[in-house]
Amino acid sequence: MALSSSTSHAPVAQLDRAPGFEPVGWGFNSLRARHPVNDFQPGPASGLGDETRVVKLTVFHVKVVHTAIFWLLSACVLYVLFSGIANHITTWTWIAMGLVLLESVVLAASGWTCPLTLLTERLGAERGSVTDIFLPRWFADRIFPVCGTTYGVALLLVLWRVFR
User: Fold this and answer.
1) DSSP string of 62-107?
2) Distance between CA atoms of 78 and 150, rounded to whole angstroms?
């Protein structure tokens, strides 16, 4: 008798059906309905079709996500700058500052290289170039000095407004 390596069709003990053991049929934890299904297979009954779809992560996917994060964090930097200039510091100012500081912590923890850049290099992108974001190269090469300086000025302005 050979054992199958697949456990998807393994029988479940039905103690409530065993002869002489509570013949009235009480439900125990051994009932199949009480076990979670971890190996869902789409089929006609599920309405999801017969084929399983697996999406392979590509450099394009990472570039889309990285570009979206860049624009979100750039908006945060500009909002903090606006808040400092206009002396209009709100909860959103602190949230924006927190998001940019979180990005700084992530960058510092990964050796000042964006983890998404490292991911694109593992997926086959050219090392040493900014190929993981949809921006012109001349602009992408200057992101850290421009955004970092702008955020530094914005942070100083907000702190000056708060503590003066």
Assistant:
1) HHHHHHHHHHHHHHHHHHHHHHHHHT---HHHHHHHHHHHHHHHHH
2) 8
CB 73 within 8 A of CB 103: yes
CB of 107 closer than 8 Å to CB of 114: yes
One-letter amino acid of 27 = G
The model's pTM? 0.62
> Which residues fall within 8 angstroms of residue 67, CB to CB, at 6 or more apart?
133, 134, 135
Tokens matching residue 24? 């009235």
The amino acid at residue 139 is F
Q: Which two tokens stand for residue 1?
A: 């008798």
Q: How many residues does the chain have?
A: 164
pLDDT in tens, 128-152: 555 667 788 788 788 888 989 999 9
SS3 category, 129:
coil
Q: Which helix (H) or strand (E) holds 154?
A: helix 143-163
Model confidence over 103-112: pLDDT tens digits? 999 999 988 8
Kind and range of the H or E run holding 150: helix 143-163
Token duo for residue 127: 């090392």
